[in-house]
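Minutes, project check-in
Item: structure for the 238-residue chain
Input as provided by the requester:
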Amino acid sequence: MKKILVFLTFLIAFQSATAQLFTKEKVANNIDNLDQKFLSWGYFLGFNQYDFKFDYEENLDDILVDNTFGFHLGLIGDMRINNYMNLRLEPGVFFTTRNLMYNESYFAGTEYNDSDLLREVKSTYIHIPLLLKVSTKRINNFKPFIIGGFSTALNLSSNQDNPDDNSSGEFRMKKNTYFYEIGFGIDLYLLYFKFTPSIRGVFAINDEIVRDADPNSPWTGNVAKMQTRGIFINFTFQ
């Protein structure tokens, strides 16, 4: 599903771009003055898929992550540096769900139920990235670019301050997460606005797990580090 959606998004953008690049007819440039503004605004919406990367204390079976597509939306503030570089602030709200599936080996020597092998991790992030967008020269009505930077996110569903832990069925994460991000996309200049499909990878820098009170907890005792990583598919309108 994820690969199909990514493929369709960029197939449409690629067809539009190549049609303009190789046509023999002169193509009228749409909204010529948009990229000359020092400050511009817009909004975005899209889909996300978050995952976890685990490092372990001992070589036990991996904790499996069943991830699903989430949804996000937000605003864009764009500051022009020159013809090829822009500084962007893109605050947004991101909704996602991940299911952690533990192997029975984690509970060796203890009593457990089937429900102990599964932890549902729902997250609502207030995500604020500061990004540098580096573009090529505009060709007719499209302009490819790469984008990257750093971000911070506040997890409103972290359960960090909840006194209950996994022994009571509560999986806890830290409220604040820090990421680096990198991606690419294509600006498409339509008649009245600029439409931009893009794809971006995000990678957490800090450890996010809040460990249980029991240092030998089957849910957190063997986890040396847990870090979010994810893919964003964005559709931007400016």
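Outcome recorded: The two ends are 28 Å apart (CA to CA).
No further action items on this chain.
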